[in-house]
Amino acid sequence: MKKFPRSAYVHIPFCHRRCFYCDFAVIPLGNKIESLNGNGSKTVKEYLNFLNKEILSIKHKSPLSTIYIGGGTPSILNPLQINDLINLFRENYRIDYGAEITMEVDPASFNEEDLHGFIKAGINRFSLGAQSFNNQILDQAGRRHSRQDIEKSCFWLKRAYEVGLIKSWSLDLIQNLPSSGFEQWQEDLEKSLSFRPPHISIYDLTIESGTVFKKLVDLGKLSLPNDDESFKNSEITNSILKKSGYSRYEISNYSLPGHQSRHNRVYWSGLGWWSFGQGSTSSPWGEKFTRPRISKDYKKWVTEQCEIKLDPSLLNQENIYKELDEKIMLGMRLKEGINIYKLINEQNWDDKKSKISLKILLKEWDRFIESGHLIKRGNRFFLSDPKGMELSNPILVSMFRWWEKVS
Ligand code: SF4
After folding, report:
1. What is the CATH number of domain 7-269?
2. Helix, strand, coil percent content, the chain, rounded in steps of 5
3. Among the ranges given (72-76, 149-153, 176-180), the one the predictor scored with the smallest mean pLDDT
4. Using alpha carbons only, how large is the chain's radius of gyration in Å?
5. 197 exposed, middle or buried (CB, 10 Å; 0-12, 13-18, 19+)?
6. Whether the predicted pLDDT of 82 surpasses 80
7. Could you tell me which residue, 143 or 224, shows the higher pLDDT?
8. Who wins on pLDDT, 302 or 40?
9. Residues 71 and 12 sit within 8 Å (Cβ to Cβ)
10. Looking at ligand 1, which atom is closest to the CA of residue 28?
11. What is the average pLDDT score of the chain?
12. Which residue has the higher pLDDT, 335 or 158?
């Protein structure tokens, strides 16, 4: 029986301005939104029309068990617009009872009344992009919000969670931002824990080309923690969060029991998902497809592909299995790791090829087991925590080299 995706990602590309480290597909709107009394600017309304068309273009719409509204800054939309979006899925796809419906929110882009409006619209999990509690660090990163904004947002979210209005919420931080030393980072962690968010995501800063940070790095004007300092930060993150009852279920994600992100697990577990909106990537049948990142091109694509000829990524095809290297890479991010024997069996290789390929890979991995980066338990291989989780790159590089040889 054909399995249809049960998860949908929706991309809302609007932000007030572009942060200095960000290379996402975003449209900076300045204060245009506020000046229109929250009803949404013309740009936003126009985008939502195209987004709706794209969402409706899927032929076999099956009930969804997770929806994730990300961005950009989805909280730039008003509760009515979020309500319309969720209703579109409710009426055309149906939403499972108990589905996880997440929305990313940015401090200073919503108030408590908006939050209740989003909840009324059907959102039951929020992800708050705090990044740091230090005003100077936030400023240097080009963020628009302050520590006070985060504190208010955390307080509203905590209260909504405690009275049962939402199922969960996540606080997101960025590790190794410029000027964030060891003491400062510990302060950020302690402050975050004072709100007891059920889920915490810790992303490592990466310097992407085309960003303000990249220009500053090239000019030698950005002071970033070196490898040893970064490792020390990761170690303390791991130890503080674990002592506080959080489990690291994925390289960048920690949760209290029962609060893992169901939607994100779909990405890491290799299950299919729909994706809608400018610059977003879907993988309904295993093969990835990214929509145009530029507004004009995205609208043209929606018009051409959804109204005239459906793009293959929107057609229902037989499931195309992910390549083995991608399955290993994604599976290794998770605490439970992978069963390499099972994955190789699924390759439909003949016996000889399976045995030889497995032997070469296991030989490669022996040295990581010896160094304590990789753990073997029964048929499963997983990264040790924190050593392997922090230094997973050499393991993945050796696996990709192996894959090039055997594929
Ligand atoms: S708010 Fe998020 S998506 Fe928007 S520019 Fe900043 S980092 Fe990028």
Report:
1. 3.30.750.200
2. 45, 20, 35
3. 176-180
4. 22
5. buried
6. yes
7. 143
8. 302
9. yes
10. 5
11. 89
12. 158
Tokens of 30: 């300045």
User: DSSP assignment of 298-339, as one string?
Assistant: HHHHIIIIIIIS--GGGS--PPPPPPHHHHHHHHHHBTT-EE
Cβ neighbours of residue 89 under 8 Å, at least 6 residues apart? 8, 55, 64, 67, 95
Does 379 have pLDDT greater than 60?
A: yes
Q: What is the pLDDT of residue 227?
A: 84
Say how far apart CA 144 and CA 18 lie, in whole Å. Answer: 9
Measured in degrees and rounded to the nearest 5, phi and psi for residue 226 equal -80, 180
How far is residue 404's CA from residue 182's CA, in Å, rounded to a whole number?
40
Q: Which residue's CA lies nearest to atom 2 of ligand 1?
A: 72
Integer CA distances (angstroms), 3 to 64, 142, 176, 322, in order: 12, 43, 41, 15
> Considering only CA atoms, which of 93, 122, 118 is closest in space to residue 7?
93
Count of other CB atoms within 10 angstroms of residue 314? 17
CA-nearest residue for atom 3, ligand 1, is 72
Choosing from 22, 29, 172, 208 the residue with most ligand 1 atoms within 8 A of its CB, the one to mutate for a pocket test is: 22
Residue 26 beta carbon below 6 angstroms from any ligand 1 atom: yes
pLDDT surpassing 80 at residue 314: no
Torsion of CA 87, 92, 95, 96, to 10 degrees: 160
Atom of ligand 1 nearest to the CA of 142: 6
CA distance 358 to 352: 10
Helix (H) or strand (E) holding 380: strand 380-383
Distance 204 CA to ligand 1 centre (A): 15
The average pLDDT across 179-201 equals 95
Is 19 a pocket residue for ligand 1 (Cβ < 6 Å)? yes
Residue 346 and residue 295: Cα distance in Å, rounded?
40
Distance 72 CA to ligand 1 centre (A): 5
> Can you tell me the distance from the alpha carbon of 327 to that of 400, in angstroms, rounded to the nearest whole number?
12
CA of 20 relative to ligand 1 center, distance in Å: 9
Q: How far is the CA of 254 from the centre of ligand 1 (A)?
A: 22
Provide the residue ranges of all domains of the chain, joining segments of one domain with +: 7-269, 324-406
DSSP-based three-state secondary structure for 177: coil
Structure tokens belonging to residue 240: 């503080």
Q: Tens digit of pLDDT for each residue in 129-169?
A: 999 999 999 999 999 999 999 999 999 999 999 999 999 99
